[in-house]
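queue> pop job 88
queue> type: inverse folding (structure -> sequence)
queue> payload:
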């Protein structure tokens, strides 16, 4: 079959090579096409359809500068004798045969590009809050490849992750961390200590080969709430319990609420979540209750140990993105001896009264 395919290519005048490209609906692809240095001054183009009836999607003689035509862009890098074609806002009906070529006298030189657009769920807009963190999910199907991944805010502000054949692990660069689980086809992007300057357009680029990359663009919207407490500090005796109360923004009323336990660098080593309003959720030593009318997540942690020093309250979007809103720090002290009177703050937590777990120091105001 391979011999037949090679023979077919040779029968198309000017076609010197071919490549297969995969993209995802709503996202984009970047395709790199090589050419002979003799044709540096010639026009470059990218057309759609069979060679005999190929329709130009973009064509230009502009050099070393991006040229745009609708969803298509072309950059002719004369120093490297390659030009790059970018297609944005991919649709499934973009799946077809394309050619990137050099316009010259006689038969044009071209490369055949077989583009396949799969159904994808794009990231869209992710909201976060100043002082908090976000964890963004990006799903793809390149499970057996070992790509290079870039996360960029602008062209000159990129964080590059070079994967190895070792097991998946977090890669860190200042406030950014990336975890690429190739077996699950899932990329996790974590951004900590958010501030308003983090707002803007971002791009996740997955470089599959020297020939092409696919990417997803998303908007990060960071809000600053001057009235709100970003963290709370609590105290508890070892072996005892502690009550937690976290406000959340009205825009997240219908989202899943969670409480994450931090262990070392892992901000969410263990998670307990609640999906319904005014129903208790018990999991291990954690109890959670979501009162949507009050926009209040409350709960308790029992059998407290020194390892319970930090938790995070947050919300999870329909796409699985996690928004970490409030940091909860717990100072765990030695258990009180039996001869000592019980501390006044050790009142029990009742599931019949949510307001009893909330103190003025624990209330927050995030809208």
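queue> result:
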């Amino acid at each position: 079959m391979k011999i037949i395919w090679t023979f077919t290519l040779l029968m198309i005048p000017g076609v010197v090579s071919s490549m297969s490209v995969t993209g995802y609906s709503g996202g984009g692809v970047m395709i790199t096409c090589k050419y002979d240095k003799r044709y540096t001054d010639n026009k470059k183009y990218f057309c759609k359809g069979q060679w005999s009836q190929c329709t130009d999607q973009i064509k230009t003689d502009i050099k070393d500068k991006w040229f745009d035509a609708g969803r298509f862009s072309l950059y002719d890098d004369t120093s490297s004798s390659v030009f790059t074609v970018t297609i944005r806002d991919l649709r499934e009906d973009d799946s077809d045969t394309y050619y990137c070529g050099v316009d010259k006298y006689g038969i044009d030189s071209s490369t055949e590009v077989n583009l396949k657009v799969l159904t994808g769920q794009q990231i869209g807009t992710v909201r976060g809050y100043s002082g908090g963190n976000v964890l963004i999910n990006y799903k793809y199907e390149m499970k057996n490849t070992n790509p290079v991944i870039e996360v960029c805010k602008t062209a000159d502000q990129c964080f590059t992750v070079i994967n190895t054949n070792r097991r998946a692990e977090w890669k860190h660069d200042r406030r950014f961390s990336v975890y690429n689980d190739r077996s699950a086809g899932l990329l996790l992007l974590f951004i900590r200590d958010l501030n308003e300057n983090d707002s803007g357009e971002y791009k996740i680029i997955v470089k599959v080969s020297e020939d092409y990359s696919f990417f997803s663009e998303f908007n990060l919207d960071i809000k600053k709430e001057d009235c709100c407490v970003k963290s709370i500090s609590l105290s508890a005796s070892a072996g005892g319990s502690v009550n937690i109360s976290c406000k959340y923004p009205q825009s997240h009323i219908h989202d899943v609420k969670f409480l994450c336990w931090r262990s070392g660098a892992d901000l969410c080593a263990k998670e307990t979540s609640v999906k319904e309003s005014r129903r208790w959720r018990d999991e291990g030593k954690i109890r959670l209750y979501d009162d949507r009318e009050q926009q209040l997540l409350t709960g308790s942690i029992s059998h407290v140990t020194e390892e319970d020093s930090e938790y995070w309250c947050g919300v999870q979007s329909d796409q699985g993105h996690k928004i970490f809103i409030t940091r909860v720090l717990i100072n765990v002290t030695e258990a009180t001896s039996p001869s000592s009177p019980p501390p006044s703050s050790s009142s029990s937590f009742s599931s019949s009264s949510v307001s009893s777990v909330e103190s003025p120091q624990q209330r927050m105001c995030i809208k």
